[in-house]
Amino acid sequence: MKIRLLVGLLVAVIMNGCVDTPDEEGWKSAQKKEFLQILEEDRYASVCDQQALYEKVKKTGNSKLMSKLLLKYTDNLANSCIDLKNFNEVQEAKKEKKIESHYDIYLQKVDKKQVLTQLKAGQSIKSILKPYVPETEQFAKLVKTYNTLKNKEGVTPKQLRTIRLNIERTKIMRQDLGEDYALVNIPEFKVRIKKGDQTTMKFGVIVGKKNLQTPIFAEPMQYITLNPQWGVPDSIARNEIIPKLLKDPAYLARNNMVIRRDYNLESKDVSVNDIDLTAYKGGKGEVPFKFIEKPSERNVLGRIKFIFPNRHSVYMHDTQAKSLFKRQVRTFSHGCVRLEKPNDMLIHIAKNFTSETKESIMDKYSSLKTHHIVLKKKLMVHTAYLTSYVDTNGKLSMFNDIYGFDRDQKLNF
Question: What does pTM read for this prediction?
Answer without folding.
Answer: 0.88
